[in-house]
Amino acid sequence: MFGTYSASKSAVHTVTLAFAFSLESTNIKVNAACPGLTSTALNNFAGTRSVEQGAREAVRLAMIGAHGPTGMRMDPSRGNYS
Fold it and tell me: Which Pfam families does the record match to this protein (predicted)?
């Protein structure tokens, strides 16, 4: 399971960077959000975060202004902005 998960996570990061570089001259920001271990049917509701908590980062990124970051992987639960 983790091999497939790791490969897909790497692919998301690569696509995020590719789109961010392609759109660098525009006001469009491209970032990947990590919602953390959110309690959903995917993990049999065993997550430690509510759906509302998991959605916060996606909403925050959707509201980034023109001077916000781009090409980043955002995981605020770990203090991780890489």
Answer: adh_short (PF00106)
Work out whether the CA dihedral 57, 59, 64, 70 comes out positive or negative: positive
- Residue pLDDT, tens place only, 46-61: 999 999 999 998 898 8
What type of residue is 38?
T
Q: Which tokens is 24 given?
A: 């660098």
Contacts of the segment 47-51: beta carbons below 8 A, 24+ positions apart: 49/77
With a cut of 90, say whether residue 5 has pLDDT above it: no
| Structure token digits, residue 75 | 């995981």
Q: Show the tokens assigned to 29.
A: 């920001």
Please name the amino acid found at residue 41: A
Domain ranges, ordered by start, for the chain = 2-81
DSSP conformational letter for 48: S
Token readout for 69 is 């970051």
**Identity at 50, one-letter amino acid code:** S
